Amino acid sequence: MSRVSFYTRPYDRLEPYDGKLSRTVLRGGAGSNASLLPDIHSEKDILKLVTTLITNTKGDGKSGDEFWTKAETLLYCALIGYIHYEAPPEEQNFTTLLEFINAMEVREDDEEYKNPVDRIFEELEAEKPNHFAVRQYKKYSLAAGKTAKSILVSCGARLAPFDIAELREITMYDELELDTLGDKIFINPKNKKDKRYYKTALFLIMSDTDSTFNFLISMIYTQLFNLLCEKADDVYGGRLPVHVRCLIDEAANIGQIPNLEKLVATIRSREISACLVLQAQSQLKALYKDNADTIIGNMDSRIFLGGFEPTTLKELNQSLGKETIDTFNTGESRGREVSHSLNYQKLGKDLATIDELAVLDGGKCILQLRGVRPFMSNKYDITRHPNYKYLSDANPKNNFDIAKYLSTQLKTKPDDVYQVYEVDASDVSATA
């Protein structure tokens, strides 16, 4: 029997983290693989994945005839359904989906021609006539000739990013284990008195200048929310044992998360929270249109760090409301006799005018909490945090080297925390 050890290196006395790092081909470097197909657990998950893919790869132009989108949806659901239910685990990835598309030859002059994918589904129908994938493929097969060819061309164009070698590698298999983020994994499960447990940090790093692969991040977030909500309901009675906090920086540049306006209202009860960080509020409206107000309305807190964007300033000015001020007017009239008058009046004044918000002190912020009047506060000085010394800003030696971390040549230290897995010879031979 052999032992395989994995470990995370905590900073001195900090709680150990089971760190996962995801990256894209545009940022380079090492990272975890994220095949989203293994995270499918039901037919509705297939439809959610397809919806996310289509939503974030439709481009910026005007949407065309919905027929083509619906036809693509049928084909994607059929192929992904087959991959999920019939393909072996090592083939449940987007590479297999691409191979299916590439093998679907259409001959306009021969309506009776059967390509390899047609024959695969005919065999599946003979064995399982009510199979989900079969039902979807039969609907797609109603298109023939030029129509079917146009659908395949559209699918090929949409899936073109997955044909890049680096992206094929990333989506080949899954290492993220998204459904485990809310689990409490104890460091010493054999000792019930030891309450320490691993914390998990998942980093989704995407280029902030190129939006070509933004749909990957949005697909991961969609899967994350769906999987954790289902696990909270089915396994933990409605609430995850460990709170999962999603810090979504540059939320307007990661693609559109379908039904986000509904998710932000429901995930809170499952011990999941989402923090959207934007440069300007108008970015959210540009991406989510009319649903942007619903998303903002379902947030429990809102913090303004400063900015000049007019829409943000105007809406913040209105949401802050007014304050009551007292005004006194004095008058004097001269005639035969001098008379004086004093008028007292209560007026409403903006708590913060638009020009005041535009020139907000860089060290100040405005915080709005549900059920609490908004207030101005000093920004937190991160250098005063007790763990600031562990950041690379404080000491360049603390900079995390992911390539070194993933290397098998790491030098261990006495304080390193290990996860030890026992592997039998039978397990090795089974995977060989």
Helix-strand layout with pairing:
Blueprint: E1 2-8, E2 17-22, H1 43-55, H2 66-86, H3 94-103, H4 116-127, H5 132-140, H6 146-158, H7 165-170, E3 185-186, E4 197-204, H8 214-234, E5 244-248, H9 260-266, E6 272-276, H10 281-288, H11 291-297, E7 301-304, H12 310-320, E8 322-334, E9 338-350, H13 354-358, E10 364-369, E11 375-378, H14 402-406, E12 417-423, H15 425-431
Parallel strand pairs: 2-4, 5-6
Antiparallel strand pairs: 1-12, 3-4, 7-10, 8-9, 10-11
Helix pairs in contact: 1-2, 1-8, 2-5, 2-6, 9-11
Describe the structure.
- The protein has 432 residues and is of the alpha+beta class.
- The chain has a domain at 36-171.
- It is 36% helix and 19% strand.
- The strands form five sheets. Strands 2-4-3 form a three-stranded mixed sheet, with no helix packed on it. Strands 7-10-11 form a three-stranded antiparallel sheet, with no helix packed on it. Strands 1-12 form a two-stranded antiparallel ribbon.
- Helix 2 (66-86) packs antiparallel against helix 5 and helix 2 (66-86) crosses helix 6 (146-158).
- The longest helix is centred in the N-terminal third of the chain and has 21 residues, at 66-86.
What would the keywords be for this entry?
15 helices; three-stranded antiparallel sheet; three-stranded mixed sheet; alpha+beta; 432 residues
Q: What distance lies between the first and last C-alpha atoms, to the nearest angstrom?
A: 16 Å
* Coarse shape: globular
Mean pLDDT: 80
Counted by DSSP, the helix tally is 15
CA radius of gyration = 28 Å
Short description:
By secondary structure, the protein is of the alpha+beta class. It has helices spanning 43-55, 66-86, 94-103, 116-127, 132-140, 146-158, 165-170, 214-234, 260-266, 281-288, 291-297, 310-320, 354-358, 402-406, 425-431, and strands spanning 2-8, 17-22, 185-186, 197-204, 244-248, 272-276, 301-304, 322-334, 338-350, 364-369, 375-378, 417-423.
